[in-house]
Amino acid sequence: SGFVERLSETLKKGTVADALKLYDTVPAQFADDFDLLFLKASLLVSAGKFDDAKTICTSLHERDPENTDVLELSAVIAKAQGNTAERNTQISALLAKDPNNASANIALAEDAMMQRSYKKAKNLYVKALTNDPSNEQALLGYGQVCYFTEDDDIAESTFNKLIAQNPENDQAFYYLGKLQAAQNKYKVAADNVAKAIELDATNYDYYLEYGMDLRYMGKFDDAAIAWTKAIALEPDYFLGYVYRAGLYDEQNLFDKALSDYRMVVQL
Q1: Residue 217 DSSP label
Q2: How many CB atoms within 10 Å of residue 145?
Q3: Is the C or the N end of the chain the one with fewer CB within 10 Å?
Q4: DSSP state of 29
Q5: C-beta of residue 161 within 8 angstroms of C-beta of residue 129
Q6: What does the DSSP assignment read for 126-163?
Q7: Residue 195 per-residue DSSP state
Q8: Residue 224: Cβ within 10 Å count
Q9: List of E strands, 36-190
C-alpha cells in the first residue's frame, strides 16, 4: 500500500516517466503482482513505450486469458502500433465475451465514423452505452454522430449530460457551441466555444469556430483576433487565412485581404 500511495502522489504531481521510475522500488514480494504490472503496462502506453507494454500484456494474458482489461489494453497497443489484424483479434475476443463491451464497440464506432457510416456508428455507440452509460468516450461519440446526422435534440442533451458529468470536457462545449451556432444563437454558442478554448487553448478548430460566432455577432475585430490565433497555431494550414481574408475583404481592408489570399494560394 505504501508503494501504491507513492505512485498515486507521483502521478498527481510528477510525470508518467517519474511514475515508471518508481517501479524500481517495488518490494520484491510484489514485483510479480498482476494489478501492479497491468498498471505499469498502462503507464508504458501513456509514455509511448508500446513494445514494453505489449510484453507485459502478453505475459498477463497468459496468466489470465479471460481478463477483459488486458484484452482492452492489448487492442489499444495494437492500434498504436498499426497492427490492424491483432487489434481486430482483440476486439473480436472482447465481443465474444460480451457483445456490448464498451471499449470494443467504441473502437468499431470510431472506425465507422472515419468512414462516415454514421448509422452504423450510432448503433455501436448505443451498444457501448448499454454497459457503461457514463462512458465519456461513448457519450462524446454518440453526441458527435447525432450532430452529424442532424439529430440536434439528442446531440444537445448528450453533450449537456457529458458536461454535467465532467465540466472539463472541452469537446462537449465545442460541439454544443456548434449546435447553437447552427440555430443562429451566436452569443451562447460563442460562450460555449470560449469555454472549450479555456480548457484547451491549443485547438485550431476551436478558434475557427469562435471566430465565426464573433463574426456573426458583428464583433469583427475579435473575430480577426480569433482567426489570427488559429493561424499562429497552424500557420501551414489554409483555412484560417480564408476566413480572415474574407473578413478583411468585407471591410475593404484590401491589402490585408490580398496578403491572406496569397497565403491561401501558396498553401
Answers
A1: T
A2: 26
A3: N
A4: G
A5: no
A6: HHHHHH-TT-HHHHHHHHHHHHHTT-HHHHHHHHHHHH
A7: H
A8: 20
A9: none
